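Deliverable D5.2: sample structural annotation.
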Amino acid sequence: MRIAVLGAGGPAGINTCRALATAGHEVVATDSNADHLGWGDWRSFHMPVYSVDAINELGADVVVPQPDGAVRWLAENAGSVEAATFLPSVATIEVCRDKGEAQRAWWDASLTPGALALGGKVSRDLLLAKGLFGYPFWLRARYGAGARCALKVEDLRQADLWVRFWRLRGVEDFIAEEYLPGRDLAWTGIYWRGELVTSFARERLEYLYPHLTPTGLTGTPTRARIVHDEKVNAVAELAVSVIDVGPHGIMSVDLKEDSEGTPCPTEINAGRGFTTLGLWSLYRNSCNFLDFAAEIAVRDEPIGKAAGRDPLPEGLTLHRHIDAGHRFVLERASVPA
């Protein structure tokens, strides 16, 4: 099968290409930055601007988008692309991109303590946030990934200066939320027309370059461990169903536990995997999640080999870092990549 990957030059895109190539597919990597296309043994094409004609000329059986912008564009133009896609609706993608809208939906479903959007009067809104959530509370950009502009707020003056600093740099929209001190969890589910085909969850244990942010969070882990937790599965699945009653494609849910150990959804990446999905897909052929997604897209049916929750062994830990490759560790036995 020939598979075109949009946004293939970033870490998540490279991992996606590796997983698909390992499954035996012919990978065609595209990216807006030509200098980021030389890092894999697959065909590469520079695509400065997404174009239906340019994508159709690739002759792909499936198109897989990785960054949010590519997901949104492909969902809008799926009807004109001469290849299979595997994406939720544009409406679902839009709600998930807006963390404020998603939080409102989850608050209505009693899944989260809610969020407060910061308007033009920053000081007033921050004072209101303190009254709602107490200290500390969590402050972050309303749009974007990787714990963008995130801050654990202990002082209102600090928070006010933080927001004003980022607004000078073009980040206008922020939300304030209750601070959730528990485990940092990631859950990925693959859906076909409302049916969950497979899913797995993991806990982030250590982050990439944590010293570069005031919170120590950078969104993507250097170490993460598979967890089998029915409560995590249930909350993640409910969080998806609140946003979309008939989800289709890959849905990646971030969750944090509150002080009582209850997982709360914090955001969903709709239509794409997290950065390390391609690496988890390399553990064994029977759990290549990106291969599953491509096969489902072409067949338009939930293939049996992808069925079931928690297919990876509990305790399996992924170690990876920049320029260091990756390694899986399970019960003291290491499996080199």
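Annotation notes: The chain has three domains: 2-85, 112-178, 184-336. The domain at 112-178 is CATH 3.30.1490.20 (Dna Ligase; domain 1).
The annotation will be released with the project's public dataset once the embargo ends.
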